[in-house]
Amino acid sequence: MTFDTENDVRQYYKNYAKAKGFGVTRRSSNRDDNGQLKYLTLCCSCHGKTESNSKNMLKPNPTAGLGCKAKVNIVRGPDGTFHLSTVISDHNHTLSPHTSRLFRCNKRLNFNVKRRLELNDRAGIRVNKNFNSLVVAADGHENLTFGEKECRNYLEKTRRLKFGSGDAEAVRDYFMKMQSDNPKFFSLMDVDDESRLKNVFWADARSRAVYDSFDDVITFDTTYLVNKYDMPFASFVGVNHHGQYALLGCALLSNEDTQTFVWLFQAWLTCTSNRQPRAIVTDQAKAIQNAVEIVFPDARYRWCLWHIMKKLPEKLGGYEQYEYIKTAIGKSVYDSLTITDFEGSWMRMRMLVRYDIAGNEWLKGLYDNRHRWVPAFVKDVFWAGISTTQRSESMHAFFDGYVNVKTTLKHFVSQYENALHDKVEKEILDDFNSFHSTIPRITHFDIEKQFQSVYTNSQFKEFQEELTHMLYCDRNFIQKEGAIEIYKITEDVLIDKDEGWRKDYR
């Protein structure tokens, strides 16, 4: 039996093996100086040694080696054709024709499948959903020549090669393309002495335009985007006229030290033509605080309240009076309308648990820096509804469906554009709805009429909620001290349909 090409003889033996129920692998081969195959040995995939290659003898790795002798030797003749010189067909193990599709040699992705995987991946469809659509189209797993693992491996390979070799060069090429499409696309890259990528910052034209209109307050947050680079993803987020978070710029960083954040904030200033934010919210991190004080000295700086309160169990959970301490801190923080109210409430809490929390440096540090996070100290500044960086935490939701835990740097940068386009489309739809529909007023107050005419629907709803609360307030004059009049405000607070309580303010 002769074959015209090397591929013909390989495919013949693979088809034979698939019908019989065993896998095929190459055992040895030799080529001449011109690269032409001289001989080739194909054997059963169970030909190897039975010993595990694990270094831990108590935890051996699985091995397919059973010492099977089945094989074929293939030789190229003088005329360039191939023939089988040796055939051993006996196996020392059970064959399984019904599972032949699972052998590695039988798994392959054809051009159409590869194209479909790439298109779905670029659209942000997760690999498991991408694969399931192929299963449905093939009418079952048994009709596919590949599994989900092969799809994942292929997509990871294409992502690595999408921009060519070298991440710094790849990302630079991508940014150059974006800038050629729109000159207002901004990016800066920071590389080390060996031209290896360290940090990168970018903001598209839409993000820069949003900051021009909504620069009152930004929140800055670093969240680890789990990829093979383990680089923290940093986001600058603002609030638009619908009260929605708006992405103002992004960065991928190699470190989270003061020097890195200074570079990033200076890149941000370059992007915004040296327009500092009026106010900024960040996590409680010394490196970020140092950078803010260096680069944004005129901005009102606030720590993320949500992150601080989230740390209470970790920092104070071991104390005997933890539940009381947690409740007391919450009351001091959220119920104090003035600095005096907070100081009094905090001191009462310290007096009652003074022996229990004495020496807690974290709590002492919070109190020493209370002007950076307690609402009573920062309420003189407009924060656009941002009191925590939870809005930045929602960047996970922003990119959900576009990236996953194995997303590489190159793939993330390209998927960023797709995610942003979807966000812009949602804002356009909200603009349309606000322009073409009106939320009816609940009172005849002129102030409500004024807000109805200038606010978007979402923001007008928030105003109406506050207006409704005002209707449940009673005002009683207490006394007059010079030019100051003191009133007692009693608010009826509804808990559910049948239960409520009254709260007094003075």
Automatic annotation (TrEMBL):
<feature type="domain" description="FAR1">
    <location>
        <begin position="11"/>
        <end position="96"/>
    </location>
</feature>
<dbReference type="GO" id="GO:0008270">
    <property type="term" value="F:zinc ion binding"/>
</dbReference>
<dbReference type="InterPro" id="IPR018289">
    <property type="entry name" value="MULE_transposase_dom"/>
</dbReference>
<keyword id="KW-0862">Zinc</keyword>
<dbReference type="GO" id="GO:0006355">
    <property type="term" value="P:regulation of DNA-templated transcription"/>
</dbReference>
<dbReference type="Pfam" id="PF03101">
    <property type="entry name" value="FAR1"/>
</dbReference>
<dbReference type="Pfam" id="PF10551">
    <property type="entry name" value="MULE"/>
</dbReference>
<keyword id="KW-0863">Zinc-finger</keyword>
<keyword id="KW-0479">Metal-binding</keyword>
<comment type="function">
    <text>Putative transcription activator involved in regulating light control of development.</text>
</comment>
<feature type="domain" description="MULE transposase">
    <location>
        <begin position="217"/>
        <end position="311"/>
    </location>
</feature>
<dbReference type="InterPro" id="IPR031052">
    <property type="entry name" value="FHY3/FAR1"/>
</dbReference>
<dbReference type="InterPro" id="IPR004330">
    <property type="entry name" value="FAR1_DNA_bnd_dom"/>
</dbReference>
<dbReference type="GO" id="GO:0005634">
    <property type="term" value="C:nucleus"/>
</dbReference>
<protein>
    <recommendedName>
        <fullName>Protein FAR1-RELATED SEQUENCE</fullName>
    </recommendedName>
</protein>
<comment type="similarity">
    <text>Belongs to the FHY3/FAR1 family.</text>
</comment>
<keyword id="KW-0539">Nucleus</keyword>
